[in-house]
Design a protein that fits this description.
Blueprint lengths: L1 E7 L2 E7 L10 H16 L7 H6 L5 E3 L2 H16 L9 H7 L11 H8 L8 E3 L2 E3 L9 H18 L5 E5 L2 E5 L8 E6 L6 E7 L3 E6 L4 E3 L5 E3 L2 E2 L4 E2 L6 E6 L2 H14 L1 H8 L1
Antiparallel strand pairs: 1-2, 2-6, 3-5, 4-5, 6-7, 7-10, 8-9, 10-15, 11-12, 13-14
Helix pairs in contact: 1-6, 6-7, 7-8
Length: about 280
Amino acid sequence: MEKDTILAMDTQISWVIYEKPSLYPLDLNAKIKTRINELVKLLSVTDENSEIYKVNHHQEQDIKLSEDTKNVVLFALQMAEKTNGALEPTIYPVLREWGFTTGKYQIPDETKIRDLLNYVDYRKVSLKENQIYLPDGMQIDLGAVAKGYIGDEIIKILKANNISSALINLGGNVQLLGTKPNGDLWNIGLKSPNSQDYIGILRLADCAIVTSENYERYFIGEDNKRYWHILDGKTGKPADKHINSVTIVTKQGKLGDALSTALFVMGVDEAINYWK
């Protein structure tokens, strides 16, 4: 068994790999870390050297994207279309105003939110092959799918190195490669929103389990109310439709990422209708 960890995308990413020591590539952990760092340097909204930062600060220009960034942007836009904007990759100006990307938390006034919502509309993003164009004032944030994409890339590396059993933890995302070494299914606990207990255990293999929730990343405003980081692109405010968490089980981490966020924003009734 081998394990390692790295801090990336404001998340502790860890992995445990089960394989006979004689078959375990000595540089595998280094390969995984290198790939994670490559993707963070492309997709971060706060790193001034990242591609996404460049895109966000060069509006009204055609910007050439790397293959990875293009793939993530394209997927985010496709999921935005499929969910009618419940997943909204252009929410970044509003998210930043709330302080969720800077740590300077505040409750924006209604006028400011309305003004910023003028720049929120995924349909106005132009992506042609590897060229992206944003209108003036628009900025994108791929945080709703980036962790899942990173998890998928880690799985690719493991498979390419003939690893058949592994568990990856990316904060609210868990990705499984195969079964446990003895062939048993993995036991994945679902945390209760209201306590440290678990509301259930999932027995799974070879899949991604992704949870979007409102009880871990939030701040308490001056009004003593709780404000969380998943915003509704139509209101510019934390999505509040009587859902505390959404968990998706799927083959792709990026798909689980997108759907868990979108269904959280939709709320119970719309999410159930969408799922049907």
